[in-house]
Sequence to fold (233 residues):
Amino acid sequence: MSRIALVDDDRNILTSVSMTLEAEGFEVETYNDGQSALDAFNRRLPDMAVLDIKMPRMDGMDLLQRLRQKTNMPVIFLTSKDDEIDEVLGLRMGADDYVKKPFSQRLLVERIRALLRRQEAIATGDLPAADESKVLERGHLRMDPLRHAVTWKGRDVALTVTEFLLLQALAQRPGFVKSRDQLMDVAYDDQVYVDDRTIDSHVKRLRKKMRAVDPDFSAIETLYGIGYRYNEE
Fold:
């Protein structure tokens, strides 16, 4: 049974969503502010967190930043329906997905299940193609799906589930272009729709992490209007 942490200062959302998730077979922990959630996570991490952005004591952005210093567990943001800045910023800070308020609880359940499936597939090596579970080496890059481990020039790079899958998809065929639609298929289930800027934000975050260990990193090339390409260095 997966443990889901739900963090939101709206008690109605905490009550209704936790009931829905429990009915779907999840164990749910609820918190009404970011600091309370962080205190609990420091004692024991859940399998996934669903975070509101605007909360008292510590907002969702600050909480995500603290979490990414210690874990790559999947995180979904709950965002205001008109606040696209929050969505993009959250993805660039390391969130795996976002759902706009007001939202369908069925949609949220689907997003949660999709992320957990992707995480489990990486952890077990149970991926669509047989060779995707093997260690991938491309020049300075080394990816071990079974350990969810990535190194660049021998230095560890901590990636989220989504970032790992995107880098793996690009690096498997150096020199070949992957469109945003193709990358969406890799990173998300068919029933989950995301727009172009979601993929772009993940790639920008991925580049930032790679450049943190190597300022000269340039292996991921943007082909404007087409997609992305991995160039082996």
